[in-house]
Design goal:
Blueprint lengths: L1 H28 L4 H6 L5 H11 L5 H14 L12 H36 L4 H15 L2 H15 L13 H4 L9 H8 L2 H37 L3 H8 L4 H30 L1 H7 L5 H10 L3 H29 L7
Helix pairs in contact: 1-15, 5-6, 5-10, 5-12, 6-10, 7-10, 9-10, 10-12, 11-12, 12-15, 13-14, 14-15
């Protein structure tokens, strides 16, 4: 297991290094002058030259790449051209909001998708199986921004059951100010016993998280169904049936654990996909997360911020994928041989 962990950590480090190099190269290939963006279109030639020296743009490409790598290791991810703040500081502020949104969506996907896939595998070729497959296909194919707009219009605007937008009621900043420890509003409200903010945050979290959960729920349901059906064809399943275990017992007691490995691997990919595409939902619900920060950075051609978001998402994906690999190895020892 230790050898497997070291191999996976080494592979993860290589992936992160590759992402950093590719990001740096793409930043240099994007049209436009970062110095002009930083100093403004009316800056003089002397001001632009000073900004280029300050940003290190006057140095050779190899030296710029080395400075970029060493700066990332030191925690210096550059300065955002549109916020004029440290990129890592901006990301650290925005990332918890996105993490709470995407994390809640993934939790909903697991809690709903796994039982649905289990039910479809148990009742294969039945009307229930058909209903699960059709509903999961609909959830996967429907654009997330369309679901977000429909949910906002129906449940917030017309029915008034849930808040329209935001992370929580801004009026609570004066009546019940929240002390920030983790940056996760729900967690901080729980830790400090701030019940008004907790209630408001949970209410604001419902619609965007449900909109984002549709795609991963459909994918998890389909993958769980396929993995369990595959496990039911294995020799151990036939032996367990011959020993008198029911089909439901074989599925839940003996097939679910090895069959959950592919689902775990899929969750890492879906998490990264959801994190990247969160800007659609965050823009609609005015959610102060990483997606909205990335969208603002793209609109302002903020290369350091865009690169920072890219690296942050890559780090999150690699770390989650590493944890999934370790979890798979713990669930199924055969994985350690790959």
């Amino acid at each position: 297991m230790a050898r497997y962990m070291l191999r996976r950590v080494g592979q993860a480090a290589l992936v992160v290094a590759g992402v950093v190099v590719v990001t740096f190269v793409v930043m240099r290939l994007v049209p436009g002058d970062p110095a002009v963006t930083y100093a403004g279109p009316r800056a003089s030639a002397q001001q632009l030259e000073r900004v280029r020296e300050e940003l290190g743009l006057d140095r050779p490409i190899a030296a710029q790449l080395w400075d970029y790598l060493t700066s990332l290791v030191r925690g210096d991810w550059g300065t955002s051209l549109h916020t004029r703040q440290d990129v890592l500081s901006d990301i650290s502020t925005a990332f918890p909001a996105s993490l709470s949104l995407v994390g809640t969506a993934m939790l909903i996907a697991v809690l709903a998708g796994v039982p649905l896939g289990l039910l479809a595998a148990r009742l294969r070729r039945s009307p229930a199986d058909t209903a699960v497959r059709l509903s999961s296909m609909l959830a996967v194919s429907c654009p997330v921004f369309l679901l977000a707009l429909i949910a906002q219009n129906v449940f917030a605007t017309q029915l008034g059951w849930l808040p329209v937008a935001g992370e929580y009621d801004p009026a609570l900043d004066s009546t019940s100010p929240l002390r920030v420890y983790t940056g996760l509003t729900v967690v901080d409200a729980l830790l400090t016993g701030n019940w008004p903010v907790l209630s408001s945050a949970l209410g604001h979290l419902v619609l965007p998280s449900l909109a984002m959960a549709a795609y991963p729920t459909g994918v998890v349901a389909q993958m769980t169904r396929a993995a369990l059906i595959e496990e039911m064809t294995q020799n151990h399943a036939r032996l367990e049936r011959a020993l008198g275990f029911s089909k439901w017992q074989v599925l839940t007691r003996f097939s679910l654990r090895p069959g959950f490995g592919p689902v775990l691997a899929l969750l890492a990919l879906v998490f990264a996909f959801s994190l990247v595409n969160a800007f659609l939902v965050e823009s609609i619900f005015n959610w102060p997360g990483l997606g909205r920060y990335a969208a603002d950075s793209i609109r302002s051609s903020d290369a350091p911020a865009i690169a920072g978001v890219t690296i942050a998402v890559a780090l999150a994906y690699v770390l989650l994928n590493l944890l999934v690999d370790l979890a798979q190895a713990a669930l199924d020892p055969r994985v350690r041989l790959t």
